[in-house]
Amino acid sequence: MSKPADTATVHTALILLGLWALAFVTLCLAVLLLAVFWSLIGQDLDLHTVGKEAGVASAAALVEALGLWLISHFAPKAGMAILFPAVVVALIYKTSHAEDWHRFEIICLLLFQSVLAATGATLVLGHFATAACLLLILLASLGVTAAVLRNW
Question: Distance between CA atoms of 110 and 6, rounded to whole angstroms?
Answer without folding.
Answer: 36
